[in-house]
Amino acid sequence: MAKAATLRRLKDNEARAVARALRISPRKLNLVAQAIRGKTADAALAELSFNRRRIAGDVKKLLQSAIANAENNHQLDVDRLVVSEASVGKAFMLKRFHARARGRGARILKPFSHLTIVVREREEQEKK
C-alpha cells in the first residue's frame, strides 16, 4: 500500500525553493530578502549579484533554484517570473563558551536561519 499523495500547497503558477540552516541571523538575512521581494526574477538576480553582504551569494543560488524548479518542474515561463514571497525563519542556535577573566565565562550564540523563496508567473494583464 502506497502513501496517499499530498496536495500541492502552492498555486499552479508558483514554484518554491527552501534553504535550511543558513549560518546567519534571521535579522541580517531578512535585510537581503527584503531587497528582492516583489521584483522580477531578472531584477532580483541583478540585485543579489551586486549586493555586498556575504549571504547574498547563497540567496542568489536559492533564487536560481526556485527559477529552475519553476521552469523544469512546473513548466512556467522564466521571463514572466516574479519573487512573490521571500520569508525568513529562525532555526537552531549554537551555544558556545568564551573564557573570560577571573574564571568567568561568556556565552556566545551562533544563530542559524531558514529561507523560503516563492516565485510566481505573472499574468499578461499584470505586465506593465
Helix count, per DSSP?
Answer: 3
- What is the CATH class? Alpha Beta
Oligomeric state of the chains present here: single chain
Number of domains: 1
Strand content: 35-45%
Corresponding CATH superfamily: Ribosomal protein L22/L17
What is the element string, with H for helices and E for strands?
EHHHEE
Radius of gyration computed on alpha carbons = 19 Å
Alpha-beta content class: alpha+beta
CATH architecture assignment:
Alpha-Beta Complex
CATH topology: Ribosomal Protein L22, Chain A
Number of strands: 3
In one word, what is the shape?
flat
Describe the fold and architecture.
- With 128 residues, this protein is α+β, with helices and mostly antiparallel strands.
- It has one domain: Alpha-Beta Complex (Ribosomal Protein L22, Chain A), CATH 3.90.470.10.
- It has helices at 26-36, 41-49, 56-72, and strands at 14-22, 81-99, 105-121.
- It has a 3-stranded antiparallel β-sheet.
- Strand 2 (81-99) and strand 3 form a beta hairpin.
- The mean pLDDT is 94.
Q: In short, what is this structure?
A:
The chain has helices at residues 26-36, 41-49, 56-72; strands at 14-22, 81-99, 105-121. It has 128 residues and is of the alpha+beta class.
